[in-house]
Amino acid sequence: MRGYGYFNGILHQTFSPLILQRTEYLLFNYMSAKIRAMSEQARTEEIVVFVTAPGEEEAAKIARALVEAKLAACVNIISNIRSIYTWQGNIEDDSELLLIIKTRKNLFDDLSAKVRDLHSYDLPEVIALPIVDGSKEYLKWIGESTGK
Fold first, then answer.
1. Could you report the per-residue pLDDT of 27-60, keeping only the tens digit for each?
2. What pTM was estimated for this model as a whole?
3. Domain that includes residue 70, residue range
4. What is the rounded CA–CA span in Å between residue 71 and residue 77?
């Protein structure tokens, strides 16, 4: 079976390097634009936010406050995670809980401020990840539950 190198050699023998360079450039730009367009189409306005907390009581307090304020549709609390990180020059190894928060991107700043107000850490983890796609009904429910 002949591979890419064989066909690449034939192309270079048949066409001038300038034409090949221009064709590769156009193809690269076309594919880059297609990938960007597909990526933008697939994204939703809903996001998932991760927050860690030192204990069950604090995690529940933050989760309940976010849902009551309609800053989150749902918060899952996962216990027994282990976090190893650097803090103030030391390597720390702690047991924490992870909050997985479903919300909308335009609520992130208010959600983040609320977490900082309620959290005992000097620098709480508050990071957002895009929801690329999901059940239309569930995504709609996130919007409805957060006041959209």
1. 667 776 766 665 555 467 999 999 999 999 999 9
2. 0.72
3. 46-145
4. 16
Six-digit token string for 77: 């609390």
Task: Give residue 38's identity as a one-letter amino acid code.
Answer: M
Length of the chain: 148
DSSP 71: S
Q: Which two tokens stand for residue 130?
A: 């895009």
Q: What is the CATH number of the domain that holds 57?
A: 3.30.70.120
Indicate whether 24 and 88 sit together in one domain: no
Query: What DSSP element (H or E) covers 123?
Result: none
Mind listing the pLDDT tens digit for each residue in 2-28?
555 555 565 556 666 666 566 666 666
User: Angle at which helices 108-118 and 56-68 pack, to 10 degrees?
Assistant: 140
Q: How far apart are CA 108 and CA 132, in angstroms?
A: 17
Q: What is the domain count for the chain?
A: 2
